[in-house]
Every structure is written in structure tokens, then in C-alpha cells.
Specification:
This protein has 336 residues and is an alpha/beta fold. The protein has a single domain, classed as 3-Layer(aba) Sandwich (Rossmann fold), CATH 3.40.50. Helices cover 35% and strands 13% of the residues. Helix 3 packs across helix 7, helix 6 runs antiparallel to helix 7 and helix 11 runs parallel beside helix 12. The longest helix has 18 residues.
Length: 336
């Protein structure tokens, strides 16, 4: 029995994990001759992970450093000494937090997002991975970091993101490092960057688009992972302990509609598939969509014939905002 961690095994705002069967059934029914697939805003990577099983080439892109590390860990090419990694996992899991000194991670995040003792262990492991970098392949380095992220997610004192932490005594949950289910996949091409710039460079039969739709920036929601992966130890500020602004998406701003229009008109593809959730009736301004459904329809209609499909879906909402009659919409456009 393989007990390695699967790619969908973490909490993430807007995750499509539960919608995968519906998304791909719809794509299969509405498209033909698709051999290459591009996931422009890959997020958790669950859509790309399913596409890998079905298509000859899969292009994966996201703006976050932490997501890029995860993609490279799960699918990236490179050598892996499995026995060496298991020895490291055993070594890290046998650490006694009481014997560890405070470190950058525990000083900034301990007692907030994590129990103080477990924060010391996470910080120690992260520093040790960096110290061993010269003796690790890039693939092994990414596997360790990705495994660290998935292990942290299991014990984080949050509602699924790092915009804030729960202001209650933190229950002690042991931090356990488990290996992820990695492979070396030659059909996957991994990018980290601006989707609008990438649109001008890639060529795929089908492009799947699932951008952020409200004002909540993912680089701020998951800043703890970004800080952990980069490990440049910036000065953190505010109650949430955030680093300086970086990787801010236009899709979370008033420029979202223009960004989407620019993206769509510059794609070289047969089909464009867009995921959209109807949070535009939200009572919370930060949860309200920056692009309206009608605008998406208009933009897609300008490049081809578009069909719209809907599916009832319980939105992963980490806050208190209520979404009544929530639906996930899927636009499928056959490009002229």
C-alpha cells in the first residue's frame, strides 16, 4: 500500500479537487482531437494532475514559488535517491522539539499559525534542507520542500489559508513529514510566471483557465509557504506576519477584465475552457468577483463559439461569507 501524499491532499482556496470528474467529462464530451493541455493558473495542480493521465503533453503554470516547487516535486524530471530521502524523513520525524532552539520560523510563526514546539521543528527542518542543498538533486530538494508544505498544512492553526490564524489556544498536533507521491514525467512542462506573457509563447490544443476572481491575492493568502520556500528570511510585518508585496495578480484588481481579454485574444489554441464560480453576489467586497459572468461570456464569444455548463458546488470558503445557491460554471469555447 502506497502511503505517500497525493497532490490534492491540502487545503487551498478555490480547489477543484471535487469537481475533477465533472470538468473532464464535460471537456471530453465537448472537444475533439486534443493532444496537448495547458493549465494557466494551476493552483493545487489537481486539474493538471488529471490532464497528465489523458493527454500527450501538459503545460503547467502558476505565479507562486511554493506551487512551482510542488509541481516540480510531483512531476519534474531529475534523479532521486529514495533511500537517502527516507533516511532524512526518519531523521526529521525523530527530532525532539524540546531540544531545539528558537529559529526564524518559530520566532515569526510560532504561537500564531503553529504550536511553538512544532514551529521550532518546521524551522529546523527547513534550515537543514537548505544546509544540505549541495548534496541534494534539485528534484530531491523540491520533494523535501513539498513534503514540508503538506505536513505543515495538516497542523496549521488556520481555516485553510494564512491571511489570519485562529485566536484560540493551539492544540498540540505533532508535525509529521511524509513523502509525497513523486514521479519523473517527461510529458509535463512547468512554468512559473505571468499567464498573459505565457499566452504569447505556448501552443496547446486546449487551454484551461481558472484565475482568481476576487480581490484576495494568493501570494498573500499563502505567504507562509512563499517565505518558507524562498527562505531569504525577510522582515515580516503586521499581525499576519507577511513579507513585502510580491507576485500580485491583476486578476484580483479592477484591471481583471482587461487582463482576461488580453489573455484570451493572445492564446494559440483550439479550445478555451474557463472555470468560474458565482461568488459575485457575495456580501463581502473582498469575496466579490472582479469579472462578471456576462463579461467572461462576451470575451469568449469574441474568439469563438461558447457553451456554458453548470454544476452545484459547495465552495471552499475559509471565512464567514455565505454563498447561497452556489454553482461552478464551465465555459467551453471552440476557437474560430
Amino acid at each position: 500500500m502506497d502511503e505517500r501524499t497525493e497532490i490534492q491532499s491540502r487545503r487551498y482556496i478555490g480547489s477543484k479537487a471535487k469537481l475533477i470528474p465533472w470538468i473532464f467529462d464535460t471537456i471530453r464530451n465537448e472537444t475533439a482531437g486534443v493532444k496537448s493541455f495547458c493549465d494557466m493558473f494551476a493552483g493545487t495542480g489537481v486539474v493538471a494532475n488529471e490532464a497528465i493521465k489523458q493527454y500527450e503533453k501538459v503545460v503547467v503554470n502558476d505565479l507562486l514559488y511554493s506551487n512551482n516547487v510542488i509541481y516540480n516535486a510531483f512531476w519534474g524530471k531529475g534523479r532521486v535517491n529514495g533511500k537517502k530521502l527516507l533516511r532524512l524523513f526518519d531523521e526529521y520525524n525523530s527530532l525532539d522539539s524540546l531540544e531545539l532552539k528558537p529559529n526564524y520560523f518559530s520566532v515569526n510563526f510560532g504561537g500564531k499559525y503553529f504550536n511553538e514546539l512544532e514551529a521550532k521543528k518546521i524551522g529546523f527542518v527547513r534550515e537543514d534542507i537548505e544546509q544540505r542543498k549541495d548534496e541534494l538533486s534539485t528534484k530531491e530538494y523540491n520533494i523535501l520542500l513539498a513534503s514540508l508544505i503538506y505536513g505543515m498544512d495538516k497542523i496549521a492553526n488556520t481555516l485553510g489559508h494564512y491571511e489570519a490564524y485562529i485566536h484560540k489556544p493551539i492544540p498540540h498536533r505533532a508535525f509529521i513529514l511524509k513523502p509525497i507521491k513523486y514521479e519523473s514525467n517527461k510529458k509535463v512542462i512547468i512554468h512559473m510566471g505571468d499567464a498573459n506573457l505565457l499566452a504569447r509563447k505556448i501552443d496547446a490544443d486546449l487551454v484551461y483557465i481558472d484565475p482568481p476572481y476576487n480581490s484576495r491575492q494568493y501570494s498573500r493568502f499563502y505567504h507562509v509557504y512563499e517565505t518558507l520556500v524562498k527562505w531569504n528570511k525577510p522582515k515580516l510585518v503586521g499581525a499576519a506576519m507577511k513579507p513585502p508585496l510580491e507576485n500580485m495578480s491583476e486578476y484580483c484588481s479592477a484591471r481583471a477584465r482587461d487582463a482576461m481579454q488580453d489573455l484570451v485574444k493572445n492564446l494559440k489554441t483550439k479550445y478555451i475552457v474557463v472555470s468560474y464560480n458565482n461568488t459575485y453576489n457575495s456580501k463581502s467586497s473582498s469575496s466579490e468577483n472582479k469579472i462578471r459572468l456576462e463579461e467572461i461570456q462576451e470575451i469568449l464569444d469574441s474568439v469563438g463559439k461558447t457553451k456554458v455548463f453548470e454544476h452545484a458546488h459547495q465552495f471552499f470558503n475559509a471565512g464567514k461569507t455565505e454563498f447561497k445557491d452556489h454553482k461552478e460554471l464551465l465555459f467551453v469555447t471552440e476557437v474560430k
